[in-house]
């Protein structure tokens, strides 16, 4: 049975070379610092590693080449306040972290919005 | 040993005593705990009296809410049809066994490698004794129940940074914490510092009570002796013959318990929803869904993905596609609709309801949760550690390890719930991993509590609820503020449509909430039909 496990493990190793390892925060809040780390930990569970979302009985929207991200205020608001069934994951992040993950998404996955949002932009939309 | 709880007082005597001493609020609490004041809103089998006039009802979703509605409405004379996204009944009432395969959003497919008879309940897994609607349907539908062990005094509490990372027995932490607190309280009571709060007559009784409750000695001290050992267990157990004398262990000091934070897990054994007796269906939670489906399975159209919900004066029209091979939409029509689709999905479906109900549908975030089942080649938790059922709690990201409440003391393999995370960053982080990574991490983390993991682990399966195609999340995550704004609007009958499910209840994420919500919805719907 150990043999049966081995392919799994080596498969996981191969994968982890091609993408960042998901860390596990020690408390209730996210402790990852960079936008990429935060995307990997907080966002890709639903929006998927390629940012393209997924479809089941309902769908997770794609963030790739996403015109909704044109104004930085919109993703900041959604991350902090949640939207429909999407939980307010920004409640488990600092203002700096929210800004970092929003800036990451707005400059990756085919998005090229260079006007970065700031921690102050985040603070303003906190409930 | 004599039962020290036998006082000769009747329950009613005790209640009036509590009432006289502590006031009516305390009496109500005591009544509740003694079983006089009933908290369940379940009133026994529903009675839908009056003529259904041949009306038809379309039910969306074949989870427990949907199948409750189907069962009862058909019995009341309605023509019923059910649309279900999955290829099976039950929804979140779900069990994974060896050979089952599950494809999560993102495309990863896992095939469960468990031995026959072993399983994981990815969703609901325990039933409180006061969830009377669930219990009643189990009785009516012939679902065999067995005790679910929530509190096992010999299971473990673990803090990574306390006691050198060594897990502690629940019985030791619980007894020592209670003992130290009792000693402190006895000390200030005897120093007359509580004289304003405690009458002269009560003072002596309180001291007796603290001695009894806290395992204190005759001087009201909590110490290493056979009194405390009778509660917390022994360093050496009493035996037979020579060298049989028991030896008391040294209590853990109060400061260490406080600093370790392990006290915070004790509420998991005190909260009403976790109090004994809890139950589980023998063989897996989905025995309930399957039992419902034996009654109403003939009404269910599986693999039906709802895409549009329309209503007008003439009735309700629902568009759906084959969820496995989406093609041109098909239509289902009825006079009325009971919609149990989770709000995470319903909020994405175009539905003809008023602005207030639509706002309510759009208002509720869905919580993140993961469970991981791990199969081991032997039941080392029983064989090595005398842990039979129950749950160990930890501050590690896996949060808890639950031991099977069945198959005790048997040789061979066993399956543990190796992680159950509800909310917080860790739930999202585990969701973000591949299934193989989740399992590898759960094994690595769990081995810090049970080193046997390393040698005994065979295979595992993981379910991250945000990756589950039929719910896109675990359960509706209401806040008080959201309920104030939206809850009543969500539960109204809007024209010909009424919603039901755990999300339309005050018992979110529990099956009882789904069934009570459904019974309430169809009762109101039926009243309307009979009246018109």
Could you provide a short overview of the structure?
The complex is a heterodimer of chains A (127) and B (532). Chain A has 127 residues and is mostly helical.
Give a structural overview.
The complex is a heterodimer of chains A (127) and B (532). Chain A is mostly helical. Helices cover 45% and strands 3% of the residues of chain A. Chain A has a single domain (32-125), classed as Cytochrome c-like domain (Cytochrome Bc1 Complex, Chain D, domain 2, Orthogonal Bundle), CATH 1.10.760.10. In chain A, helix 2 crosses helix 4 (95-105) and helix 4 (95-105) packs across helix 5 (119-125). The radius of gyration of chain A is 16 Å and the shape is globular. Chain B is built from 17 helices and 26 strands. Chain B has 532 residues and is an alpha/beta fold.
Rg from alpha-carbon coordinates of chain A: 16 Å
The amount of helix of chain A comes to: 40-55%
What integer is the average pLDDT of chain A?
Answer: 88
Query: What's the total helix number of chain B?
Result: 17
Report the total helices of chain A. Answer: 5
Which fold does the CATH topology of chain A refer to?
Answer: Cytochrome Bc1 Complex, Chain D, domain 2
Give me the count of strands of chain A. 2
Task: Decide which structural class fits the backbone of chain A.
Answer: mainly alpha
Order of strands across the widest beta sheet of chain A?
1-2
Q: What is the average of the pLDDT values of chain B? A: 93
- Overall number of structural domains of chain A: 1
């Amino acid at each position: 049975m150990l043999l049966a496990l081995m392919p799994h493990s080596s498969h996981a190793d191969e994968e982890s070379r091609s993408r960042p390892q998901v860390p596990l925060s020690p408390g209730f809040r996210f402790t990852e610092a960079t936008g990429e780390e935060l995307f990997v930990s907080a966002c890709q569970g639903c929006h998927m590693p390629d940012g393209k979302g997924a479809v089941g009985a309902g769908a997770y929207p794609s963030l790739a080449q996403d015109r909704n991200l044109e104004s930085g205020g919109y993703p900041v608001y959604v991350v902090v306040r949640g939207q429909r069934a999407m939980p307010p994951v920004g409640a488990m992040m600092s203002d700096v972290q929210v800004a970092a993950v929003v800036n990451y998404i707005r400059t990756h996955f085919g998005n090229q919005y260079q006007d970065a949002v700031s921690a102050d932009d985040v603070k303003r939309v906190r409930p | 040993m004599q039962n020290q709880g036998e006082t000769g007082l009747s329950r009613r005597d005790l209640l009036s005593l509590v009432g006289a001493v502590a006031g009516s609020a305390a009496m109500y609490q005591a009544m509740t705990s003694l079983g006089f004041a009933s908290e369940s809103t379940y009133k026994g089998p529903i009675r839908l009296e009056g003529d259904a006039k041949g009306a038809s009802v379309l039910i969306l979703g074949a989870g427990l809410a949907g199948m409750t509605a189907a069962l009862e409405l058909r019995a009341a004379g309605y023509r019923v049809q059910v649309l279900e996204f999955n290829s099976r009944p039950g929804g979140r009432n779900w069990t994974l066994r060896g050979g089952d395969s599950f494809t999560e959003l993102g495309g990863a497919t896992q095939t469960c490698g468990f031995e026959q008879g072993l399983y994981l309940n990815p969703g609901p897994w325990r039933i409180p004794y006061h969830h009377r609607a669930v219990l009643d349907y189990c009785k009516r539908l012939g679902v065999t129940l067995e005790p679910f062990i929530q509190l096992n005094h010999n299971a473990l509490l673990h803090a990574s940074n306390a006691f050198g990372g060594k897990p502690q027995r629940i019985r030791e932490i619980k007894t020592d914490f209670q003992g130290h607190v009792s000693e402190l309280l006895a000390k200030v009571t005897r120093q007359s510092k509580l004289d304003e709060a405690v009458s002269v007559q009560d003072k002596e009784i309180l001291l007796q009570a603290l001695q009894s409750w806290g395992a204190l000695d005759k001087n009201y001290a909590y110490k290493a002796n056979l009194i405390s050992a009778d509660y917390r267990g022994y360093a050496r157990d009493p035996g037979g013959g020579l060298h049989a004398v028991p030896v008391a262990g040294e209590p853990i000091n109060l400061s260490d318990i406080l600093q370790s934070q392990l006290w915070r897990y004790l509420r998991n054994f005190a909260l009403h929803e976790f109090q004994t007796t809890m139950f589980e269906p023998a063989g897996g939670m989905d025995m309930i869904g399957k039992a419902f489906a034996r009654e109403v399975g003939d009404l269910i159209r599986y693999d039906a993905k709802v895409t549009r919900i329309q209503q007008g004066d003439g009735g309700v029209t629902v568009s759906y596609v084959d969820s496995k091979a989406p093609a041109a939409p098909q239509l289902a029509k009825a006079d009325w609709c009971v919609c149990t689709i989770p709000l995470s999905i319903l909020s994405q479906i175009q539905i003809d309801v008023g602005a207030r109900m639509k706002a309510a549908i759009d208002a509720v975030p869905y919580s993140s949760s993961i469970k991981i089942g791990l199969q081991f080649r032997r039941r080392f938790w029983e064989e090595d550690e005398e842990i039979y059922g129950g749950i160990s709690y930890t501050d590690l990201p896996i949060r808890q390890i639950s031991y099977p409440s069945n198959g005790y003391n048997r040789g061979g393999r066993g399956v543990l719930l190796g992680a159950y995370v509800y909310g917080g960053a860790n739930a999202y982080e585990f969701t973000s991993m591949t299934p193989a990574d989740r399992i590898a991490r759960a094994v690595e983390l769990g081995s810090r509590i049970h080193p046997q993991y390393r040698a005994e682990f065979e295979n595992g399966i993981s379910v991250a609820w945000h990756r589950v195609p039929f719910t896109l999340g675990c359960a509706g995550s209401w806040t008080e503020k959201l309920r104030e704004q939206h809850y009543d609007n969500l539960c109204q009958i809007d024209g010909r449509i009424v919603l039901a499910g755990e999300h339309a209840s005050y018992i979110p994420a529990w099956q009882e909430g789904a069934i009570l919500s459904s019974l309430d919805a169809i009762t109101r719907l039926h009243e309307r039909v009979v009246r018109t």
